[in-house]
Design a protein that fits this description.
Strand order of the largest sheet: 1-2
Structural class: mainly alpha
Radius of gyration: 20 Å
Largest sheet: 2 strands, parallel
Helix content: 55-70%
Order of helices and strands: HHHEHHEHH
Distance between the termini: 67 Å
Shape: globular
Number of strands: 2
Strand content: under 5%
Oligomer: single chain
């Protein structure tokens, strides 16, 4: 089967599964959501997170090279999981630095974590990536191979993969256009916008106005996005001044 079709299939699976994992994490575990509300995670509108799609493609390619990592099973797999962790950390850093430097948007924030680099990567989450890499190898990779064998016998399913990418590309264009407005505001005000913080602020503002928050379009409301950004900036500045006074 064509390698590009394989990677497209894996990107589709990884993006959707990653979105579900992030959705559940934010709902039940994340300390950033003490109200335990359902929050649409990620950069896009739809149920997919590209970072996980790219991650699954890399994990598949790395796991496929596993026989070449050595004869000793223990060290072979240890090296394999280490390479997986490094690759996933690198993907996370590249995605984070591009969003930070190009769009002036911080999609996630590890600045409170020990050993973090620019708040984009840290040892804690690199270790988590290693654990997830091991979980992928033992629990998911065999099923991925079975799924690819099934796909090779049912190539008509590739139509749905194509449909997914059609919707996905439209979504990316829409989300990029939205982030371009955020970038313009951030650049003119010389600030970095925390994307998740902005979504939470818009949701809170809608609730205060007794409006129902939008799950799929969290930044769409009756109030212009520019106004939300200004209000959020003013709110953060007030909190910062208040903290400085309390320290004095």
């Amino acid at each position: 089967m064509n390698i590009w079709l394989v990677l497209a299939f894996l990107f589709f699976i990884g993006s959707v599964i990653g979105w579900v994992a992030e959705l559940l994490f934010r709902r039940f575990i994340s300390s950033a959501n003490p109200e335990r509300k359902w929050i649409n995670p990620g950069f896009c509108v739809g149920p997919y997170i590209p970072l996980y799609g790219f991650g699954l493609c890399f994990l598949f390619l790395i796991a496929s090279l596993e026989p070449e990592t050595g004869r000793n099973p223990f060290w072979s797999k240890t090296l394999l999981f280490l390479v997986m962790a490094v690759c996933m950390t690198l993907i996370e850093y590249i995605a984070g630095i591009l969003s930070l430097k190009v769009f002036k948007v911080r999609l996630w924030d590890y600045r409170k974590e020990w050993g973090n680099i620019q708040g984009l990567i840290c040892p804690k989450f690199s270790l988590i990536w290693a654990v997830l890499g091991a979980a992928y190898y033992f629990l998911i990779h065999p099923h991925i191979l079975s799924a690819l064998a099934w796909l090779s016998r049912n190539l008509a399913f590739s139509f749905f993969i194509g449909l997914f990418f059609g919707v996905f590309l439209i979504d990316v264009a829409y989300s990029t256009h939205l982030v371009a407005h955020i970038r313009a505001f951030a650049k003119s005000n010389e600030v970095i916008v925390r994307y998740e913080h902005l979504k939470a602020y818009v949701r809170s503002a809608q609730e205060k106005r007794k409006q129902r928050p939008r799950f799929l379009f969290p930044l769409r409301s009756d109030v212009p996005l520019s106004e939300h950004l200004k209000n959020l900036r003013d709110s953060l500045e007030k909190n910062e001044k208040k903290k400085k006074k309390e320290k004095k």
